[in-house]
Amino acid sequence: MQPFHSSSDFTSTIGDFARGRGLRDRALWPRLRILDGEIAAEQLPELYRAADAFVLPSRGEGWGRPHVEAMAMGLPLIATNWSGPTAYLSEEVGYPLQFTLVAVPERMGLPGHRWAEPSLPHLRQLMRHVFERRGEARARGAAARELMVRKYTPDALAEQVIAHLLRLEAPAPTLGRDEL
Q1: How far apart are CA 38 and CA 20, in angstroms?
Q2: How far apart are CA 61 and CA 85, in angstroms?
Q3: For the chain, what is the radius of gyration of the CA atoms?
């Protein structure tokens, strides 16, 4: 994993966060396994199978490859409902996370740009919901996989491209004199 504008010492960052909120006894912390190195592609299916949901509250995605990989593995998705994921994320296949659009901090050097600030209370609510309603979450994960297979496999995408090219190739309808 490569950090984006942050430290790569995730264990210390999590520890500082927990201690800053009064959780000094590590035994009280949630069970976490931090994967801070690169994961081989052939290990990803096993990682996805070990999860109940895929959760990625981000500020924006171009497409969201990890999102669609997890969905293809049958996991329900909890993700920021903005940017790339809006092409495939819905309440039928996952859990769209509320957000607020905010200005990108000046230190980033992107004046005029905005990104999503995921709602932490809504994230907590969605994660609790998935935990308490596992059957519903599994059903959304199954629907997520069906969507990925139906619309986003190489063959399905090729069919969509061909159909689009055929529409472009078709002659434009001519207008009759009375339609001008």
Answers
A1: 29
A2: 7
A3: 21
Structure tokens at 168: 């472009």
- What is the DSSP secondary-structure string of 12-74? HHHHHHHHHTT---GGGSPP-----S---GGGHHHHHHT-S-EEE--S--SS-HHHHHHHHTT
95 forms bridges with which residues in the sheet? 78
Which token pair is 48?
């996805």
C-alpha triplet 136, 141, 142: angle, nearest 5°: 100
pLDDT of 112-121, one tens digit each? 999 999 999 9
Q: Are 126 and 54 a contacting pair, CB within 8 Å?
A: no
Q: What pTM, to 2 d.p., does this model score?
A: 0.79
Backbone angles phi, psi at 82, to 5 degrees: -155, 155
DSSP 112: T
- Which of 120, 44, 98, 99 has its CA nearest to residue 75? 44
φ, ψ at 151 (rounded to 5°): -115, -20
